[in-house]
Amino acid sequence: MGRGDPAAIQALVSRKLPRMLQLAHRMLNDAAEAEDVAQEAFLRAWKQAPTWVPGAARFDTWLHRVALNLCYDRLRRRREVSMAEPPEQVDTGPAADRGLLARDTGLRVSAALADLPDRQREAVVLCHYQDLTNIEAAALMGVTVDALESLLARGRRALRAALADLRE
Amino acid sequence: MTLERFRMLAEAYGGSLTRWPAAEQDAAFALLAASPDEAGAILAEARDLDEDLDAAARLSPTLALRQSVMAAAPRARPVRAPARRWFAGAGVGIGLAAVAVAGVMIGVNLSVTSAGEDAVVLAAAYSAGMVDDAGGDS
Predict the structure, then answer these.
(1) Domain with A15 in it: what CATH number?
(2) Residue that is last in its domain, among A39, A59, A93
(3) Which of A23, A110, A147, B134 has minimal CB crowding within 10 Å?
């Protein structure tokens, strides 16, 4: 692949954009915000790539870090807003999602994920949905593998409890 | 591996042994073979939750989002550097140094990383950076 080959960049975006969109969607449970985060993550990637140290992290891991930081910025802002003024209604995503996606189980799972403490949700998202290894996820989160396992186990227990009626 | 550890790993990583930590998979498979009923029940319970989680809605990038990301991507442009330009002005030395450093780094990057995607991004970004550093060549 040549330098800056547009086809190569396009292939990279094709692989990574859906991945970043899913990451942000799982973390934020809001389709519009997820799109904003995915777009911003790439803008930062394009800007920061020249200063990125190769070998320190894979591009995929680095992009995850950028997107997660953006997600946490938004989660923090949400908390500030909700403390100042409680939301009138819960956002369940854009109308297209409500109509087309598996509305019952899918929305229940999304809601249960959204109810998890942030760090537990992050652990579950990175390991289950983003399919990162325990070492990669722990490094991204800045915790030990033992701590990651604890977050995962607590998160999954809470999810199982929240979704228990689906199995009845 | 003890059954207790097996259960702990299932609670953390789910019901597919291939998603467990690589260092523990062999021991986990051995335990599953030795205690198929108990270990199998633990995995089945974890798999139920995995299936529920997989039912969560998935978003696909819209065309507009994809186009917007692509539009912002660094563009590769030929670096035209005739000798007379390199020695023509005050900022040229800096530009030349930047190009040289970037060129070396690209070479290093391409040689030390096996991840093609890393090389693509870096090469594209450096390519754009070189254009800017060399004086806004377009």
Answers:
(1) 1.10.1740.10
(2) A93
(3) A147
> Is the Cα dihedral B38, B40, B46, B48 positive or negative?
negative
B2: Cβ–Cβ under 8 A, 6 or more apart, which residues? none
Crossing angle for the helix pair B3-13 and A145-162, nearest 10 degrees?
70
Q: Do A54 and B118 touch (CB under 8 A)?
A: yes
Q: Distance (Å) from the C-alpha of residue B3 to the closest C-alpha of chain A? A: 16
pLDDT tens digits for A40-49? 999 998 887 6
Residues A61 and A128 occupy one common structural domain? no
Domain count, chain B: 2
The nearest CA of chain B is from the CA of A87 a distance in Å of 23
Range of the domain at B25: 3-54
ipTM above 0.90, yes or no: no
Report chain B residues whose CB lies below 8 A from the CB of A42.
Answer: 69, 72-73
Instruction: List the structure tokens of A117.
Output: 């403490």
- Give the side-chain half-sphere CA count within 13 A for A40: 16
Residue A4, pLDDT > 90, answer no
Neighbouring C-beta atoms of residue B136, cutoff 10 Å: 7
For residue A139, the enclosing domain spans 102-168
| pLDDT tens figures, A114-166 | 999 999 999 999 999 999 999 999 999 999 999 999 999 999 999 999 998 88
Q: Chain A, 68-127: which have a CB under 8 Å from a chain B CB?
A: 93, 97, 101-102, 105-107, 109-110, 113, 124, 127
Q: Are residues B85 and B118 in the same domain?
A: yes
State whether B118 and A59 contact (CB < 8 Å): yes
A32 interfacial to chain B (CB closer than 8 Å):
no
CB contact under 8 A, A59 and B126: no
